[in-house]
Each structure stands twice: as C-alpha cells, then as structure tokens.
C-alpha cells in the first residue's frame, strides 16, 4: 500500500482536503472523499465522458486525471453547477428532454457548459463535434443537440 498524500482543492466553492493514495483518480476523490456521486464512472478510459467535470473552468474527464493533478484547483461538478438555481444548460436539458436514462447526463451537461463558453453561437454541426467525446448509450443525441442549441440561445439572451 502506498503512503497517503494530502490533496486540497476547491470543489463547488467549498474547500475539500483529504488524505488519499497518490494513484487516486479525480473521479474517485470526488465520489469517495467528497461524497459527490453525480460524477459517474462509466468506462475508466475517457471514452464515454460520464465523468466530465470542470477543472479551473476547463472540461476534464476525471477518470483519467489523478486527484493530485487537481491539487489547488477549482473543480465544479454537476452538483455545484446549479447550486444557485439551474444553469441554462440544465434548464435546456430539462425542457428539451435532452436525457433518457440519465447516466450520461451529468457529464454531457458539464461538457456542454465548457463547450458553450468557448463557442457561444454554435451550429448543430459544432455541437455534434464539440460533444463527440461524450457518449449517450440510449442514442438520445438529437434532443441533446437541441438542448445545447437552446441553452446557447438562452445564454446569449441573458447577456
């Protein structure tokens, strides 16, 4: 067994410090040490995107990032995204039925938030390309794309 190391980060605006093994993945840190289970473990290979979170505002697949790599960073999970009311992407997913079973939804929403920060006026093609690293096993892509486009419009109107 490896000796523990202390990792500290701000998770959803709250300081989070825990002793963990150096090989602890960020997704494990969030789920097990912080108790935030909205971030899912889907494939452990960064293929599905269910584990997507924001690290210092950037979309990251937390199943392939060590917790130590996020030491001193600001991490946002699905639980923290809508802490003060639903984020426009969450609202659009709800209104446009951008989910089916819900397993991919948290990662898809987090990826969409990051994508829209970089591309606030996307086309349908842009959305499909921007989210290609996140898989929906229920094949709900059409409504997911509609939801992201709707969120883009709502975010633009709110500015």
In short:
This protein has 159 residues and is α+β, with helices and mostly antiparallel strands. The chain is 37% helix and 16% strand.
Query: What is the CATH third-level topology name of the largest domain?
Result: Ubiquitin-like (UB roll)
Instruction: Report the average pLDDT across residues.
Output: 95
Q: Please provide the ordered H/E string of secondary-structure elements.
A: EEHEEEHHHHH
Q: What shape does the CA trace take? A: globular
How many extended strands? Answer: 5
Summarize the main sheet.
5 strands, mixed
| Helix fraction by DSSP (H/I, runs of at least 4) | 25-40%
CATH architectural label of the largest domain? Roll
| Strand arrangement in the largest pleated sheet | 2-1-5-3-4
Would you kindly provide a written description of the structure presented here, covering whatever features stand out?
The structure is a single chain. The chain is an alpha+beta fold and 159 residues long. The protein folds into 2 domains: 5-81, Roll (Ubiquitin-like (UB roll)), CATH 3.10.20; 88-158, DNA polymerase, domain 1 (Orthogonal Bundle). The chain is built from 6 helices and 5 strands; from the N terminus they run ββαβββααααα. Strands 2-1-5-3-4 form a 5-stranded mixed β-sheet, with helices on both faces. α3 crosses α6 (141-158). The longest helix is centred in the C-terminal third of the chain and has 18 residues, at 141-158.
């Amino acid at each position: 067994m490896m000796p523990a190391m202390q990792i500290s980060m701000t998770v959803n605006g709250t300081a989070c410090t825990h002793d963990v093994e150096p090989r602890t993945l960020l997704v494990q840190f969030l789920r097990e040490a912080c108790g935030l289970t909205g971030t899912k473990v889907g494939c452990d290979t960064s293929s599905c995107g269910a584990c997507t979170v924001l690290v210092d505002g950037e979309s990251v697949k937390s199943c392939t990032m060590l917790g130590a790599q996020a030491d001193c960073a600001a991490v946002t999970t699905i639980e923290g995204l809508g802490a003060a009311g639903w984020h426009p992407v969450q609202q659009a997913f709800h209104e446009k039925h951008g989910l089916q079973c819900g397993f991919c939804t948290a990662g898809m929403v987090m990826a969409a938030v990051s994508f829209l920060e970089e591309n606030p006026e996307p086309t349908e093609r842009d959305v499909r390309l921007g989210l290609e690293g996140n898989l929906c096993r229920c094949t709900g892509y059409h409504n997911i794309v509609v939801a992201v486009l709707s969120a883009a419009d709502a975010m633009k109107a709110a500015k």
